[in-house]
Structure prediction request, 229 residues.
Amino acid sequence: KANDTAVNGLQRHNERVPGQKHSNEKIDDSRTVDNVFLKKSDGKFKQAVSNVIENERENGLKGVRKDAVRMVEATVQLSGKVLGMDEDEQEQVLRDSYEWLKNEFGENNIVSAVIHKDETNMHLHFDFVPIDEQGKLTAKTIISKPKLQQYQNEFLKELQEKHATLNFKRGGGETNGLSQRDFEVLQKEREEREKELSKYSDRLDLYEDELIEREERLEAREERFKGRE
Prediction:
């Protein structure tokens, strides 16, 4: 929405420059120069968003509500077999992802698109103004739940056709909807957990006991909620 702090923070993260200080310790400053800009904003994101609305929206900036969603960010993250490929191949998957996003949401609506190579895993940030083919600013329609499901199916089909050997499949579970930073934190936690389990296999019984206790507590909570209902 029209939140200067949030928009400026996104731009600072996405279009960072070498030597910039970060709260994210996973950013390797020596590799920031390797980041690939597929579309770089001219100036501030806020102004770029306003320019898109002015030029692409049916009524321009006139009548845009203060609480309207003016920009949406999609992040494409790599995992699984793709991470075993060399950098050029990983980058190509993300470039193909960008082409699909560009065609789906409109090239003229793009604010910024960049491939980050300076974090744990390569990924794409894609920022766009949610204007539909009729010239309406309508994030509610463009990123509705049915639309998101449609995009995910079509995006999967696109990658399966262009990269058949990678055997792309639908993901899911706890990684759905996470930001790139949270995704990497979760992935790091998984790796550490797997190392711990392989090194101390005798702890498995303890973990299973803890899981049972959690399930029992959850069942007890559900019973209490049913009682309240």
In short: The radius of gyration is 21 Å. The chain has a mean pLDDT of 85.
